[in-house]
């Protein structure tokens, strides 16, 4: 029997394997893909980039790794991130414990975990660690007629590994979330004609992407200790603090100057311009209207601009996209915007897509419809605990203690699971915090003669209440179509899933539990 089985070989799985080895524990990693990378192995769609800046969307656990790697752009493209993760796997000799092309189908607990795979493997371990990611279960909407479509169709989260050529083709893109906003400008440059089918208009801030010069990179390498310390001290895992000033207390002219400066700088830091943007509707309205004005200024056709204006959710209540030329794309003569709230999709036909208003001939169709987020990846496995299945446990929404463990599932850990800050943060920062805590826990169990650990139902219940209470003190739950709430997946329970109390505060709570003999957990 192994000490641990890890499911997934992205950022989480690679670092977890490294820490397990450091503990002297035996481990195996199962990975459905044929290579490392997780999210960045599967998401190869046109325009795929990170929305955190490259120099801190990376591991901090090894300074030699930080010093030797060179990023080429402010926001790295998918191939560069994948190359980085391959470098990590090679540098720390991780591949020898990873079984690629091996999808886990079932995991059951009985004095240890037995894991079964799609190809018939069976392996046992004391501990099971889900490193499956938050955004790895592709959500393909059930639209009648898809099977009859004569063209090619793709999902951004399961993009082919070979090149996809849209030259000379009529392409349709369904979805204008983060992936759609990245993919649409690139596809528009390739296609003969692009039709965008939009359900929910989105706020977006320009990325202002640019190459990184050596002077900047040298400065970062010299200051990495300070940068990483700041990441761990902030609420979002980024190396910048949210301004202490409030938008509602700032004179309008000064407030606009601050927004203009943040817009020129670009990126996710725009939302850090004021402290009250996610706690005050009045404050949020000032940011939302500023962005709407920018959309009106950018899009030349007033009717198209009006359809692109978001009104149904506060700014940053969804993870706010950053873009390169997204709104400018709608000034092209070969791009059409279809509002599927006004004219819903009826069916996909053999040669295109039909709405209640018109038929749109298409040669290719792209689903930028996101993921069954946070819960979907774990629920894609038949996980059976001591008293039932995870699917039964999470029927009305996910339950966990600190997003780390689930009552009734001994020795199961989930990295950045529901109930953790994860998707509200810079993911590598959250991943390292989770993995380090799990590694500490496993070491403490061994050193103190314990074989088993499990969250208590009382702690789980109290944490679930805390997650909802903290969310309700913000504007986040007002985004009714958000995947934070599971609203993009028909039939999924509407529960706010991430913890909105901030990464630094959350990490302190995790450490406090461990420091007090793992309060909220039962060890035996």
List key phrases describing it.
single chain, 524 residues, alpha/beta, eight-stranded mixed β-sheet, five-stranded parallel β-sheet, 16% strand, globular
Description:
- The chain has 15 helices and 20 strands.
- It has helices at 11-22, 39-42, 63-68, 78-91, 178-190, 214-222, 224-233, 252-265, 281-298, 302-307, 376-379, 390-393, 427-447, 457-472, 503-515; strands spanning 2-7, 27-30, 98-99, 104-109, 113-117, 122-130, 152-155, 170-174, 193-198, 205-206, 322-323, 335-339, 345-349, 352-355, 359-361, 364-367, 382-384, 412-414, 453-455, 521-523.
- The strands form five sheets. Strands 1, 2, 3, 4, 5, 6, 17 and 18 form an eight-stranded mixed beta sheet that branches. Strands 7-16-8-9-12 form a five-stranded parallel beta sheet, with helices on one face. The protein has a three-stranded antiparallel beta sheet with strand order 13-14-15, with no helix packed on it.
- A hairpin with a 3-residue loop joins strand 14 (352-355) and strand 15.
- Helix 1 packs parallel to helix 13 and helix 13 (427-447) runs parallel beside helix 15 (503-515).
- The two termini are 19 Å apart.
């Amino acid at each position: 029997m192994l000490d641990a089985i890890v499911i997934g070989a992205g950022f989480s799985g690679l670092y977890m394997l490294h820490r397990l080895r450091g503990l002297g524990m035996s481990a195996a990693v199962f990975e459905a893909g044929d290579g490392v990378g997780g999210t960045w192995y599967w998401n190869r769609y046109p325009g795929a980039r990170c929305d955190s800046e490259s120099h801190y969307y990376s591991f901090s656990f090894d300074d030699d790794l930080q010093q030797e790697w060179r990023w080429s752009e402010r926001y790295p493209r998918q191939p560069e991130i994948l190359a980085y993760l391959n470098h990590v796997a090679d540098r720390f000799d991780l591949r020898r414990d990873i079984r690629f092309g091996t999808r886990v189908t079932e995991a059951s607990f009985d004095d240890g975990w037995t894991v079964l795979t799609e190809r018939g493997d069976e392996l046992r371990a004391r501990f099971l660690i889900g490193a499956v990611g938050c955004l790895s279960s592709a959500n393909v909407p059930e639209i009648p007629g898809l099977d009859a479509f004569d063209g090619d169709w793709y999902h951004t989260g399961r993009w082919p590994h070979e090149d996809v050529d849209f030259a000379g083709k009529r392409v349709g893109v369904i979805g204008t979330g983060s992936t759609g906003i990245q993919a649409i400008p690139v596809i528009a440059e390739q296609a003969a004609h692009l039709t965008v089918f939009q359900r929910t208009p989105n706020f977006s801030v320009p990325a202002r992407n640019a190459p990184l010069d050596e002077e900047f990179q040298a400065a970062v390498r010299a200051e990495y200790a300070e940068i990483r310390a700041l990441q761990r001290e902030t609420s979002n895992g980024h190396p910048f603090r949210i301004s202490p000033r409030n938008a509602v207390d700032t004179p309008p002219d000064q407030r606009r100057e601050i927004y203009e400066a943040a817009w020129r700088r670009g990126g996710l830091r725009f939302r850090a311009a004021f402290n009250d943007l996610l706690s005050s509707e009045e404050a949020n309205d000032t940011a939302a209207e500023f962005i709407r004005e920018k959309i009106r200024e950018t899009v030349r056709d007033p009717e198209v601009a009006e359809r692109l204006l978001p009104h149904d959710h506060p700014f940053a209540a969804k993870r706010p996209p950053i873009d390169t030329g997204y709104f400018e794309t709608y000034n092209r003569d070969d791009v059409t915007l279809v509002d599927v709230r006004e004219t819903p999709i009826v069916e996909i036909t053999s040669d295109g897509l039909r709405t209640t208003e018109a038929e749109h001939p298409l040669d290719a169709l792209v689903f930028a419809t996101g993921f069954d987020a946070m819960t979907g990846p774990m629920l894609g496995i038949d996980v059976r605990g001591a008293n039932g299945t995870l699917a039964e446990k999470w029927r009305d929404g996910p339950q966990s203690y600190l997003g780390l463990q689930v009552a009734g599932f001994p020795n199961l850990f989930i990295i950045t699971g529901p109930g953790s800050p994860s998707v509200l943060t810079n993911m590598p920062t959250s991943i390292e915090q989770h993995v380090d805590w799990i590694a500490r826990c496993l070491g403490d169990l061994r050193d103190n003669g314990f074989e088993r650990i499990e969250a208590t139902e009382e702690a789980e219940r109290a944490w679930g209440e805390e997650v909802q209470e903290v969310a309700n003190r913000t504007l986040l739950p007002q985004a009714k179509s958000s995947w934070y709430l599971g609203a993009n997946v028909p039939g999924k329970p509407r529960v706010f899933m991430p913890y909105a109390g901030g990464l630094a505060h959350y990490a302190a709570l995790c450490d406090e539990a461990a420091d007090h003999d793992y309060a909220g957990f039962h060890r035996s």
